[in-house]
Structures are given as C-alpha cells and as structure tokens.
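Person: Show me a sequence?

Helper:
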Amino acid sequence: MDLPYPLPNDPLSGPIERLARERDWAHVYGRLDRAPEFPWDEFRALGEAHLLGLSVPRRQGGPGLPLPRTAAALFHLAYRGGSVFAKLALQPEFCSVLGDHGSPEQRRSWFAPQLRGHRLVGNQITEPSAGSDVGAVGARARRTRDGFELTGEKSEAAFAMDAGAALVYARLKGDAGPGLSVFLVPQDAPGVRRTLAPPDLGERWQRRGRVVYERAPLSRESLIGQAGRALDYVWPELIRERVLLGAIYLGVARASLDSTVAYAGHRHAFGRPLSSNQAVSFALAEDCARIHAAWLLIQDTLSGLAEGEPAGGRSALAKWMAGEAALTALDHAVQFHGGQGYSAALPHEQRWRDVRSARIAHGTSEILRRVAARSLWPRDTSRANGRARAAK
C-alpha cells in the first residue's frame, strides 16, 4: 500500500534495495540480536558498495555526497535492513575527527581502511561519572619522553571488544585551560584492558563495554590535531551526526509503519478490518504526518548546514523530533500487531528496542531540548535581560 508521503527519492535507493535482498539483511538483522557480534561481512559489503562514510569528502577517500543525499541513503539503508546497516554506513562520520584532523599516517592507517570496511575505529568519551557532562571527563594523559601515558576508564563504549583502535578523549596534564585532547589508541596496546558489558536493551551487535587504561604508553603520533582542541573538533561532527541519526530512526519507523498500515487494511476483527477503527486509523495517520514532518525538518537542517548556517539548535530538535516520531510509530506497530507484534516473530519489537537509544545516545532528549531552547535566546540578549532585572 502506498502512503500519502512517498519514500525519499534518491539514486542509491535501488542499489540499496538490491544489496539488502542479495545479502538477506532481514535475516541478518534478527540474527545479530539473538547472537550479538560485529557484522564484519556486512561492513565489508557496504565498503565494496561505496556505502560507508557517504558524506566523507572525496579528498579523504569518501563518496562526498551532499548531506541531504546522505540522509536519504541512510533512510533507505534503515528502511531495508534496520538500524544496523545504516549505523555501519555512518561509522566513518562518527570518526570524522580522525578524517579532518588526523595526520596523513593516521588517516592512511585507520580512516581509509574504515571507508573500505577493513578496519573499525570506535569513539570513547563517556565515563562512569561523565556522560552528557563532558566537562567531568576524568581520563588523564601526561607527556613522557617518548610520547604520552594514558590513565582512566571509559564506559558504555561501542565496539569495545571489536574496534582495532579508538578515539579516546582525555585531559592532557600540564596544558593550560580545561579543554580535552583526543588520541588514536590501538586497542591491543599495552595497558589497555577491555571488558564486555551486560547485554543492552537493543543494538546488541555493538557489544558495548568498559575500557580501562592503566598507564598505557602512547607514541607522540597518537595525538590528533592540537592538544586541548578536541571539543572544538567534535562539536561540528556532533551537529551533523545528530541529524543523520534522525534519518536512520525515521527509516526504521517507516518500515514498520508501512507494514502496519497494510496489516490494518486486511486484518479483520469483529467482522471488519482494523483500519475501520478510529483508534487504529487515527493513530496511523498521525504517525504518517509526524514522520514526514520530522523528515522535512531533517532536510531543512541539513540544507542549512551545507550553506554554512549555524544549526546547533535545529540539529538538536531534528534528532529529538525524529526519535519521538519513530518511537511512537514503532510502539503502534507492536500494539496493533497484538501478540505477534510483541514477539520476535516480527521485527517491530527489535526495531523499537534499537531505536530506544535515540533518547539517550549522542545527546539525551533532555540535553537536546536544552540546546534547542538556548538557541531561541542569544546569549547577549539573555545577559541584557538579566542586567535589566537586576537593575529593578
């Protein structure tokens, strides 16, 4: 059944559909939930199809797609195979700090192979006492005669057991200011200890875990860019990736919405189709509108980013709105499919569990709304209002 709002139109939609069918992504998606592992075969297949790092510039070895087209491709990857394959495709963007600020050797050894699906680089910012509050990061690095020594603990690290290297954010002792530095750390280096965490609610294939650095020796070449500048580097990446993640959430949700609309049209209860019940039909109509509205916000935000407009507030709202629209639609898919929707017989419950991370990862819903709200009142205006109130 065709919904009033068509799927995003993009030349990559056909190749993505063929790849999903050839590699039986529907089966792989369910298997990775039941037996979590990093899907190296699928990662390499995406690399061979030039679907990794879609927005990575050509000068860095990527396809160099405009951001709106990247979002459309991620939508189709999620629509055809769930969040697994879309997030695999986005992994090089998660490491754009390495592509943008790494040395030629760092990019040659790690970033370029990741674009081909041959190597995996993780990100490690979160700590037991530092999640959304990046200022509380406690990992410390100190300079040594040969380079650096890293001590600290990272928690909730995606690919903790599978990444060959990680971008590790830490404070460099002796440097002025509160800024963080970022290091490219091979995960088999001396002093690195990795532990797999208990299974997550969703996206179990990421095999998150705990990584402890016990005076781990690092070479001088492990520092990425300039010391103390890591947050300056990661902020533009975070703005982009929040919006692109929103496209993934909507692709997953649209797959379940399409299935649920079709099911409600032919499933009969009490002698009539489910779609004749307003409790069902109204909810699904609202899901269509919410998903489409969130998609338009994503495209508008990405177009602004491409034009160099500041978009921190809009990107926060785009991710938040996409996540909420997706979770509502996925919850309806579970509900309206009844007992089967609640079971692993259908993919809706796994999709809901996978997308539930939208309210936590890459900016919690609370933080996103704070960022968006602060963008409504420029800092100078807020200060002026504060001075006016103080004068009364």
